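Interim report, section 4.2 (structural modelling).
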Amino acid sequence: MASEVVMPQLGYDMKEGRIVKWLIAEGAPVKRGQGIAEIETDKANVELEAFGEGVLRKIIVPEGQTVPVGKLIGYITAPNEALPAEIPTTAPTAQPSQVPQPTQAQSPASQPAVQQQPSAPAAQGEVRASPLARKLAQDKGVDINRVTGTGPGGRVVEKDVEAYAQQPKATPQPAAPTALPVTAQAPVVQGDRIVELSRMRQAIARLTVASKMTIPHFYVSADVSMGDAMELRRQINSSLESNQPRVSVNDLLIKACTLAVQKYPNFNASFKDNKLEMHGSINIAIAIALEGEGLIVPAVLDCGNKSLLQIAAASKDLIDRAQQQKLHDQEYSAGTFAISNLGMFDIESFIAIIHPPQSAVLAVGQVRKTPVVKGDQIVVGQVMKMTLSSDHRVNDGAAAAVFIAHLKRLLEHPVTLLM
Amino acid sequence: MPEMTFREAIRKGLTEAMDGDQKVFLMGEDIGAYGGSYAVTAGFLEKYGPIRVRDTPISESAIVGTGVGAAMGGLRPIVEIMTINFSLLAMDQIVNHAVKVRSMSAGAAHVPMVMRTVTGGGAGLAATHSQSLEGWYATVPGMKVVIPSTPADALGLLRTALQDEDPVLFCEHALLYGTRGEVPAKPYTIPFGKARIARQGKDVTLVGNARMVHVALQAADELAQRGVQAEVIDLRTLRPLDVETVATSVKKTHRCLIIDEAWKTGAIGTYLAFRVQQEAFDTLDAPIAHIGGEDVPMPYARNLEQLAIPSVQTVLKALKDQIGV
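Predicted structure of the assembly:
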């Protein structure tokens, strides 16, 4: 029987994906589990594995195209099997593709492009939506094609449109009246240059705006004397075998945060539908800058059951694989608390944006030598500034103060990190 | 307010009619000496005598046909068809005569007759004694089909039926006779074609008639425990059918499940669903859902019979699968 190959959902917030490359040719044999295409998501490139076995009978979506999750992109059949009678095709642009009209698609300049968002994911008329959802979407100016349905069979229902309308727009809506045709062929306007954003940058835009719009952030800061922690780290690293991963300041922080959220589990929680989701495991996410690309925040999983050395090994592995775009889906999405460290950039302090659905993020600056008062003496101390961003729906100021004070105590008595 | 059983409410309505108008008389199988197969008319023969409480031969066609003639002649018969299953033998008298006399005689004659009958399954009476055929009669122009779910409605609707100048099919669900409810002491009637909101809610509308109203109310209790507020509507009459009350509710809740005990194919609720979607299409957040009796001759085996009739479980499942609540 012919099996459909569809755009997979590779993360909870993935709505569309781009086919970077078909790894096998049309007509070539396919084994179950074999990689057949390379898919680019907001976060990474992933190999799509075949569910069926036989031959890759038909490629429906060519390389380079972006299609919504669930969209048919190809067929795998038995070697001599005929294809289903009606095979949908995708026009070579992101234009609605249900009605194949090549002459129109090839001359887009001849018609006013009413499509204001060039990355509109789905073809018109394809979305299942309730009449109420459609009417509501129309009233609110929401493109129903972009709304993810949660009703029976994935139907878009009232609450999906409400939820979508409440979340901020990923791309600003052009305010220009619709009478002015905007064409894809005219990106240059009076010397300014329009740059297409990478999918990752678009995702960052969407996520950070959503976070700031929906999460009431507040911040508490503290100075931490890191002298003892730095000395402990030096001792540990000097006693390690040469092939063992070194312990970084960040690893100390991951361990300290793990202990702190164990003591104050409300910082390892998500606000969800007027309830708190208390996470069973502690997955400390770390912000990793990808050169020229952007930022990802994957998690070191299950920190609650890892020693400091195990955390050091796990975080090194995570960072290595992040640079190679080889992270697992769960590592992208399972973080329960995050650390953002800009110490290596000579930054004293900053504040970070919470990464939903998490409810807190710790922003950490450089450990720097500073005159500090010890007893009645001024001595050279090693001070690190850290700022906790918290979701006020989950925690109040006093709770955040207690939390950060405990974190400070752990780091200033670093032997606790080994216990 | 006094409390009484469904059976007592019907008996009260019949007693009032018999006491109030000498033209009223009862006719049916086993209604006199035996007191009625569901004991509704127990004691009537002794009280009103054999002229006004007439035991008949086992011939539904004769019972209804005699009633039609008596009504045309100026009497106000209340005929009892022991169960709606047996009304099939009288279908010609009901559909072609009782209902048509007024129009066929250009208004010269009419048939002020109440036809009481027992409907519904669930009593272990197998395929030929467990049917819910009231929806069939509700398709006939000129027909009035009444199907109450509570003692108070039964009394109020029976009073209205007894005042009607045209034939009324009054359907009593077999499993409701023993149910109790408050009945207003003051005289009251309930108009035909006016559904009752049995429970208010804002999230989904459940519509039923007769015993299915009680199933819907139990389902609403379950839904309330997870924060879903269901509105429950009791149709009370299948013809005239109160589309407006249901549509108004659905415009508020955006979701609707209609429950029939009758076979799902062609059940009156499927027609109601069509009418409601015409009225409320743009406000719907899910297709209107319908559940009915399974399309099988009613099984005699108890476990299978229970599976063939809509239950709280099937209501909740339909809500989840078809509507997503």
